[in-house]
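User: Hi! I'm working on a homework problem where we have to compare a predicted structure to a textbook description. Could you give me the structure for the chain below?
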Amino acid sequence: MEKSEHKPARQKQDTPGALANFPYDRMTVERFRAAFPRARWSDERRSWFVPGKTAARRVDRWLAREAELLAIHGDSKGRDAYSFDPISSPYLEVAEDLRIRTPYSKTILRELHEIPWASWDDELRAWRVPFRSYEELRRRWPTIEEAAKCSEPEERKRRREAEKDSEAQRATRLRYAERRRQRYPLSAEDLPPMGRPVATEQYGGVVFTDVSGEVAEPPVMAAFYPHATRTDIDYVWGTWCSATLTELIRTWPARREAGEMEHSRGWWRPTLGELRIARRNARVIERRRRNRRLSPMS
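Assistant: Happy to help. Predicted structure tokens:
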């Protein structure tokens, strides 16, 4: 928040009160000052200080009302934008919000996760996007719709028939077969920590459970593991499994992104951004497994 024109507050250590922090906006500041005339700006804390024993409760109520007002205003603007430039698509339904139903696609999930306030509704089996996020949805819609069309069962079947017995399909089958082995070439001189999630080039967030000591074959590494190219070190097979959501939540993120050395060895400590993606994917996988367990037997 930008510095106010008022003099910085100097509160005593034992002065009861609460801090209020929100994005700077002139009208918002005016409403805040009207609601809390005794509030003072603190340069040291970069926040407003509201004195009083009940200040925390009063500030929380005010912030909740402001958030509600902003949401209502944003939804109103979004409805106007939709009326002016609507999205016409069989994948989009308009109700009190925008509801999206498409075939499963990683591309669609990635796009929807980037839209503010978008959420999955298990009961409706649809993604719900409030009108205040319409502009962002409109910007991403061409990618979403194209991915949805490519993910239709008929289109998937047509592509499978076209690719049947092709070189690309044979290569894909070999990659899947290699993944099912759950092995990974590791430098014998720089092994990852066992039992703790790390990020990898090929398989994302994994946990290494064992190192067999068996030397990895150069032809296999050349075909599936482009990081394992050094000829001056020995690579051995490590056994891995996908990191669980609990393991990922307990993992402390790295402070910096992996460098060339970490990428060349094939594993590194994940950053907060990488952990967020891995946790989100793990949450989706666990939800699917739970739904399959709860679904009635046919």
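For your comparison, note the following. The chain has ten helices and twelve strands. Residues 118 and 129 are 5 Å apart (CA to CA). Good luck with the assignment!
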